[in-house]
Write a sequence for this structure.
């Protein structure tokens, strides 16, 4: 079997297009300052203007310069000539019987990505995409079968959060009493794409989400999931500081090679070494090991015992994900009994091992089912099976 490709060219688009207005969304505070100065804001005023505009955009969700009433009319008009405040456009929205919402949003170039909101009793989680498609061809993942890949800009990443707040009606109204209940209380970077292959844009977008004068989400409420891009793991702690989840999925290199092909580049031992070095937090900051339950592939008792042995020395919890099927998928979900038995072995060894309840299955919003409608040029069943090592 030929090795599945690990990387391919990723299209990147410049932060600002050479012509046309500059989008203020997604700029860091220093970048916003630079942009304002470059377009005529006196340096002396720049700090104050950054603070004011930032609050309008990220605290109040305002997109119209004219509504920024603490700026002079003239300055507002000047801003409107040079800048835009733009987020991805919603193409369609589906609501599942379980309340999960899935939006298809359009970004520059006509590409589309999916964003999912999962309401739970004590929280509301937004599952955000970091790329159109994914270069990593994990054999059980629908996104991995999509050929075209482009990194999202920081504007397009934070824009997904802003779009969801629009739809949830969650921007506060200036002057109104502060509402403590947040519908959108958590973010998981578990949508389409490998976030650590788009590090800077993901970092800048998440920093904006955490900013005290804006969306104000705590770093503890943001979880980045990686398939195991080892060289970027330490940077995630240093430069973003969010929670980390790792798509582990197998307990031997032989099996992980077929499920998560990036394992051929950074194998289990290398990955675990990077995770051991990840700054240990309190118990609440354990690393989440995601483990998809595939019938007859990675779900035996022996796998569970091996997993426990591998976790030794890492503050970890294990999140078991019942496989979500998609058309042409070469796997089946493990039975409920098997999943429970597997979870129990891990639990007995002292690790939390929740089983993730599939959400929004009726609208194909569950983990690994995301794939935009315009880019459904699917690989054939045969090709998928071959890459999974299921055929000779
Ligand atoms: N690229 C990143 C984040 C996106 S995937 C990563 O791989 O970690 C989010 C999670 O869903 C990952 O753990 C991924 O392995 C898992 N997943 C992908 N396809 C799935 C499927 N069909 N069923 C269940 N989980 C799946
Ligand atoms: Fe990419 Fe993650 Fe899907 Fe693998 S599981 S193909 S890394 S999105």
């Amino acid at each position: 079997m030929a090795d599945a490709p690990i990387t391919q060219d990723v299209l990147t688009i410049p932060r600002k297009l050479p012509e046309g207005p500059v989008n203020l969304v997604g700029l860091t505070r220093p970048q916003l300052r630079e942009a304002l100065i470059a377009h005529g804001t006196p340096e002396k005023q720049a700090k104050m203007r950054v603070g004011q505009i930032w609050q309008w955009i990220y605290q109040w969700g305002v997109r119209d310069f004219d509504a920024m009433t603490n700026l002079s009319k003239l300055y507002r008009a000047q801003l409107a000539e040079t800048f835009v405040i733009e987020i991805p456009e919603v193409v369609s929205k589906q609501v599942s019987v379980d309340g999960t919402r899935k939006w298809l949003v359009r970004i520059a170039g006509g590409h589309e990505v999916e964003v999912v909101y999962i309401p739970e009793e004590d929280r509301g989680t937004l599952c955000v995409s970091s790329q159109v498609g994914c270069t990593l061809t994990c054999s059980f993942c629908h996104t991995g079968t999509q050929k075209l890949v482009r990194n999202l800009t920081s504007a397009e990443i934070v824009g997904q959060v802003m779009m969801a707040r629009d739809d949830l009606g969650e921007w506060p109204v200036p002057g109104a009493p502060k509402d403590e209940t947040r519908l959108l209380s958590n973010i998981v970077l578990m949508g389409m794409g490998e976030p650590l292959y788009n590090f800077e844009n993901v970092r800048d977008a998440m920093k904006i989400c955490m900013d005290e004068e804006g969306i104000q989400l705590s770093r503890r409420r943001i979880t980045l999931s990686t398939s195991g891009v080892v060289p970027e793991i330490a940077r995630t702690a240093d430069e973003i500081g969010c929670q980390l989840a790792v798509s582990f999925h197998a307990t031997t290199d032989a099996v992980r090679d077929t499920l998560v092909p990036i394992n051929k580049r950074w194998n289990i031992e290398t990955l675990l070494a990077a995770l051991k070095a990840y700054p240990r937090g309190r118990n609440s900051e354990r690393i989440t090991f995601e483990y998809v339950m595939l019938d007859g592939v990675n779900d035996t008792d022996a796998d569970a015992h091996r997993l426990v042995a591998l976790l030794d020395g890492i503050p970890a919890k294990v999140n078991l994900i019942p496989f979500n099927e998609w058309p042409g998928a070469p796997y089946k979900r493990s039975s409920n009994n098997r999943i429970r038995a597997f979870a129990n072995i891990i639990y007995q060894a002292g690790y939390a091992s929740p089983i993730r309840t599939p959400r929004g299955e009726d609208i194909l919003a569950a983990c690994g089912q995301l794939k935009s409608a315009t880019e459904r040029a699917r690989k054939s069943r045969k090709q998928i099976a071959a890459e999974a090592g299921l055929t000779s």
